[in-house]
Amino acid sequence: MATQLSPRYDIRFQPDGLPQVEPDSGFWLRCPPLRVPSLEEVRAELQRVPPGEDSFPPTIADEQKEFIELQSFYKSNVSNKPPPASTSLFLSDPLFFRRPPAGAVLSPASPGGPLTGPELASLFENETPGLWHRHVVNVFLDPELGPRSAAAALSPPRQALIWAALDVAILASLTAAWNYKWIAAGLPQIDYRRRPAEYARAQQIDPKVFQVLYDLERTTRDGRIFRDPARRRGTPACQPPGCTPLFPGTPRHPAYPSGHSTYSAAASHVLGCLFRGHEDPRLPGKPALETEFTKLATDIGVARLHGGVHWRQDHVFGQAVGNAVGRLVIAQLNATGIPVPSRPVSDPPDAVELERAATQFAIRCGEVQSDFCGAVAKETQRAMVLQNVPLDALSAKEARSAPEKNVRKTAKSPRRKK
Fold it and tell me: Is 404 exposed, middle or buried (0-12, 13-18, 19+ CB in 10 A)?
């Protein structure tokens, strides 16, 4: 007895309805979108765009000057009222603190304004790499915002592409940073650069003048995170007051470059590009999100200076490495030829023509350049327009104006239907 198959999917576009969800993304893997950049590529990119002179480890005399900055941070952070330290909108606006991510160490008091030095240092002490960047993206992709949200405009594959680009950037930047920490032999004071705690111990610095903030117990004062200079943290094998642990808050890997500065710069470069020009109606004043992502990277890197575990040059060079990685990741996205914005499709496309388009996509892999900077804004604007303009009329207009390299016909135009 022959098996009778169920009818094929055939939900068609209706006035004021919904288009098909990006059939073209079904053949993206025929030109793999992303891979982790190699160390050689990162080094070549750093040669193409060299870091500034202030990013390289200083002489011993210069290191003494750097230590003065760390002493200044320490003095303000253990004062009765530590001053504001964060600069990014993402670390001050209540929108990003309503539902904080798991693993985020925040003050019990509701955040309303910039974080203080102890709060900033505590948030970025032991967090999962990229924690706050992922959180910011999740806020922007919140489906509760309805049709005005980026989530409503981006297909699931496009949302996944954002996460993939972010993860590739974080992985590549951290592995590059660890190479410079441990393996960059022959480069003076780069591999195995000592930590500020080691400097303070060698110079017999008075603990009243400087301690690693992460060496101190985390407490609260007036609902805000505070580090008590009179309460030193212990280690599993050494608990004060009967035992004084050595460097309990200092990571067990060399200082240069800062891993936090590296991954945050890479993540911010990628997300700043993708979210360029995006407007969230919950943020008044239309802030420039690309600038805010850059500030977020700076805040995360400087948080480690507030913590007392990094030097200024660790941060500056880390950001240079991270930005190099970010440029490489965006270049990979642009080389895929994936159209930005996506091509709207009203009715289910013809399978034969879709396969033909997939074949052409594979053949042209690496030859067609896209522009992913501003991709989220372009997709969101497209979705908003589609709510007020008939889809087939919009498609026809865009087909006439779009560059030939980004026009990929994968379905019969609705205008041909009879």
Answer: exposed
Cis peptide before 32 (omega within 30 of 0): no
Q: Look at residue 248 in the predicted model and tell me its pLDDT.
A: 93
- Calpha distance 131→134 (Å, rounded): 5
Query: How far is it, in rounded angstroms, from Cα 174 to Cα 325?
Result: 10
Q: Name the pTM for this structure.
A: 0.88
Contact (Cβ atoms closer than 8 angstroms) between residue 321 and residue 46: yes
Name beta bridge partners: 226.
219
User: How far from each other are the two terminal CA atoms of the chain, in whole angstroms?
Assistant: 37
Find the mean pLDDT for residues 238-255. Answer: 90
Tokens of 306: 């507030």
Rounded Cα gap, residues 179 and 254, in angstroms? 11
Helix (H, G, I), strand (E, B) or coil at 149: coil
More confident call, 331 vs 144: 331
10 Å Cβ neighbour count for 48?
Answer: 9
The answer on pLDDT for 14 being more than 80 is no
What gap in Å lies between CA 67 and CA 63, rounded to an integer?
A: 6
Calpha distance 387→385 (Å, rounded): 5
Q: Which of 57-61, 83-87, 253-257, 386-390 has the lowest mean pLDDT?
A: 386-390
pLDDT for the residue 203 = 94
Residue 188: pLDDT band by 50, 70, 90 thresholds? low
What is the pLDDT averaged over residues 310-331? 96
- Residue 315 tokens, joined: 């941060």
DSSP 84: B
Examine the pLDDT at 328 and tell me if it is beyond 90: yes
Structure tokens at 190: 């780069």
- Largest CA-CA distance found in the chain, in angstroms, rounded: 90
Structure-token pair, residue 79? 């004062």
C-alpha 158/C-alpha 111 separation (Å) is 32
Nearest residue to 217 (alpha-carbon basis) of 118, 81, 128, 123: 118
Average pLDDT (390-394) is 36
Q: Quote the crossing angle between the two packed helices 312-335 and 156-182, to the nearest 10°.
A: 140
* CA pair distance 56, 314, nearest whole angstrom: 8
Cα→Cα distances 125→65, 265, 362, 371, Å: 25, 17, 44, 35
Euclidean distance between CA atoms 393 and 415, whole angstroms: 9
Please state the domain extents for the chain. Answer: 39-335
Q: Quickly state the pLDDT bin for 407 (edges 50, 70, 90).
A: very low
Secondary structure class of 257 (helix, strand, coil): coil
